[in-house]
Amino acid sequence: MSNREALRQLQDRLATRMQAARTEAAQRAWLAVECAGCGVLFPLHEAGEIFPVGRTLPVPHTQPWFAGVANLRGGLHGVVDLGVFLGLRSAGGAPPEGARLLALNPMLGVNCALLVDRLAGLRQIGQLQPHPDDDPAPRPAFAGARWRDADGRVWQEIELAALAASEPFLGVAA
Known about the structure:
Layout: H1 3-26, E1 29-35, E2 38-43, E3 47-52, E4 66-72, E5 75-81, H2 82-85, E6 100-104, E7 112-116, E8 118-124, E9 128-130, E10 143-149, E11 154-158, H3 160-165, H4 167-170
Parallel strand pairs: 2-11, 5-7
Antiparallel strand pairs: 1-2, 1-8, 3-6, 4-5, 6-7, 9-10, 10-11
């Protein structure tokens, strides 16, 4: 094989890989969870590691939705009960069976984990259809699009970067 042919094959492989990378980057993917019976989608690139619910130490004089702090892999993380924060349920009581802590991606700059009721897997853009926004109530800035899956279930996207930067979320003190 000549050097020219080898160079052409290399260029073809690189072009194919670059096109595949562009296509993959354009794909949207979410981590799907359940919170107080509601379907919630987190952008996969904003989600961090998932942990079992362990010991969470309460912190006095905080909002009812702030469950406390937990040691996750040697790092101290604030734990937010997402269902209570979103107003989907009242504070108090033990986490449901199967509950998990979802740490936010470290790139967001907030040592925080969200307490969610159940993991529901991954969702790709091809599995969901846009859901018409027929609710006239104002939504917070971190509430993204609403989606419907093939079974007719509605999923609310929550943009974790916007959530982590929102004043209500950062206002932990009571």
